[in-house]
Design goal:
4-stranded antiparallel β-sheet; 4 strands; 68 residues; Alpha-Beta Plaits; alpha+beta; 2 helices
Length: 68
Amino acid sequence: MADQTYSFKVGMSCNGCVNAVNKALSRTEGVSKVDISLENQLVNVTASIPKDAVFEAIKKTGKPVENL
């Protein structure tokens, strides 16, 4: 599967939240790039895995997450 870019709205209130989401995604096989905007509560992920798999990886951090 070719890399796709997915966007999610993630409830993050501080840099600790950003780091938790970044760490979870960085450890997820198939994820090649993570771009997080705390200000916009937005996470863009470039990955070769399905969007559902990326969604579940973010969900495991305990942060509220929505597909965009």
